[in-house]
Amino acid sequence: MKNLIILAMVAVALIIFNGCQKDELVLIDEQPQTVVKPDVYVENGYLAFKNMEAVDSIVTMLSGLNEDEKEVWETQIGFKSARAEFQRLYCEYDKLKSDNELLAFKKKYETILKFEGRSPSDWSVDYPFATGYFIPVLNKDGIYKVGKSVIKYTMYDQIIILDGDLEKLNNLDHRFSR
Length: 178
Prior knowledge:
By secondary structure, the chain is α+β, with helices and mostly antiparallel strands.
């Protein structure tokens, strides 16, 4: 009986000792893992997205943030959006007090901003891109990327380079400037 109790105590001690030991897993012939890119990241100064669902998700998220929160998000990801780039111009626009100042502003920035109205006293001004929805994810040049495709918005058009070749985009740019 005594031997049985001693044997039981040794078994309990071994179980406790084994429970406290760190399990080590040894991998033999471990293959290198492929690097998985996040759903959104910065590439060549523009945002690159895994797919359109990621674009929609970020656009929705950014639309719910105030200006300071958007600035924090952009800083964290290392991106400068069209919003941030054009902020100085919109601040200048907000300080205009007369139609004459507006006319001078329009003349100065006619190739940079989009002025909706043709009337000299029309105060409508917008980003220089043929989109409203994607503005939160565009860089100052109107570019973002989805999968392999690079998309650029100009003042009047949308250009899509399916294979993402930026050289093709650069060659097309001059044809779409008006």
